[in-house]
Amino acid sequence: MRNLGALSVGLLSVSLLVGLASAAHANDSPSPVDVGLKRGGVGVGSSKWVRDPQSGEMVPVLAGEVSDDPNQYKPVLQCQVGDDLDKKCLPGQLQCPPREPGGKPGSAVIWKVAPRALENPTWTDWKSPNDGPSCLYDQKPEDLLARLAGRILSDFRTLPIKPAVLGIQPSPHTLRGAETNVFADAVEQRFDVVIFGQKVRVVATPTDYTYGYGDGGGLGPTMFAGGPLPEERWGEQTRTSHVYKQTGDFQVSVSTMFRGTYSVNGGPDLPIPGTGEFASPAQTVSVWRSVTRNYADNCLQNPQGEGCPGVPSK
Question: Which domains, ranges and CATH numbers included, belong to the chain?
Answer without folding.
Answer: 67-137 (no CATH), 161-288 (2.60.40.10)
